[in-house]
Amino acid sequence: MSKPKVVVTRKWPAEVEEQLKALYDVQLNENDIQMTADELKEALRTADALLPTVTDPLTAEVLGIEGKRAKIIGNFGVGYNNIDINIAKKHGLVVTNTPEVLTDCTADIAMLLLLMSARRAAEGNRLVRDQQWTGWRPTHMLGQKVTGKTLGLIGFGRIAQAMARKAHYGFGMKILFCDPYPPAQQIIDDLQASRCETIEELLTEANFVSLHCPGGDATRHLINEKRLQLMRPSAHLINTARGDVVDSKALIKALKEGWIAGAGLDVFEGEPNIDPGFLNLDNVALLPHLGSATEETRVAMGNRVMENIAAFFAGLEPKDRVV
Ligand code: DGY
Predict the structure, then answer these.
(1) Which of 170, 216, 265, 315 holds its CA 20 to 30 A away from the CA of 109?
(2) What per-residue string of b and e applies to 2-28 under the rule 16 or more CB within 10 Å gives b?
(3) What is the helix, strand, coil percentage profile of the chain, to 5?
(4) Pocket of ligand 1 (CB under 6 A)
């Protein structure tokens, strides 16, 4: 029997690509150049499985092409707002993602950004590199203490809970969260966490606010000018979720005008094209979407996609099926 044909849209860790080669008739992307809409359509027409990632827009137009051969989309990433899920469902496509395996590393990056923002690490790094550091002095570059402060999490899924564990047990932080679907009471009790009924309440009380909700239309500009104005002038906003959850223009204004003390961002509206307004600000730490970027996690993500498509081709239900 011939092997299923699989198209991978970006370069994956070598050890996962080797396994794909052994199991499938696979088209890899050795140059690692983002595929065009036409190339994605062609892949859907010619392959049994398309393995895209979070930067491949699988729009209604792409998914709607005639004569599709593909039956499954194995997304490399936990977030799948790159895929028009309703249209995928309408066309009978199975879609899977890669939860769990990137939880800790993404929470680590959120914690890193929290610390960077509180302790002005990006600004300090720039000062040293620009050879502008004139020496230690008691009032130089004072930031804010993290230990014992209050962390507010908007969205309290796996990654937020992992961050809460690091913050609570590692830094003695008090945990607040706001989520319409709270986790089991045991998880809340273990973290001595308190639920806020509204985002507004959380924004007013937290010293650090970290975003952990999915991207997409429902959460676009969830953090807008009005909400940023509710935060404390000493507070910091951390975003490792999706860029469009925050209105960039409003955040730039908030950072410039001192409505909040700082921000740590791993994701951006329209990334990788970052609003230039961020670039000259000292009170923002900027990272290039590194949440899951460790060797271990990216291999695990690839393996997770492989498990999902293997189950599908064996006639079983893939464990990370989204639709
Ligand atoms: C995801 O998986 O959704 C991330 O944004 C990439 O790590």
Answers:
(1) 216
(2) eebbbbbbbebbeebbeebeeebebbb
(3) 40, 15, 45
(4) 54, 77-79, 102, 291-292
Phi and psi of 253, rounded to 5°?
-60, -45
- Helix/strand/coil for 133: coil
Q: What is the pLDDT of residues 204-220, one digit of tens each?
A: 999 999 999 999 999 99
Q: Residue 271 catalytic?
A: yes
pLDDT in tens, 181-200: 999 999 999 999 999 999 99
Contact 304/17 with Cβ under 8 angstroms?
Answer: no
Judged against a pLDDT cut of 90, whether residue 1 lies above it is answered with no
Q: What is the pLDDT of residues 32-42, one digit of tens each?
A: 999 999 999 99
Q: What angle do CA 227, 164, 77 make, to 5 degrees?
A: 85
Beta strands in the chain (DSSP E): 5-8, 25-27, 49-51, 72-74, 94-96, 150-154, 174-178, 194-195, 208-211, 236-239, 262-265, 284-286
Closest ligand 1 atom to residue 77 Cα is 2
**What one-character DSSP code corresponds to residue 170?**
I
Q: Is 221 a catalytic residue?
A: no
* Ligand 1 atom nearest residue 98's Cα: 2
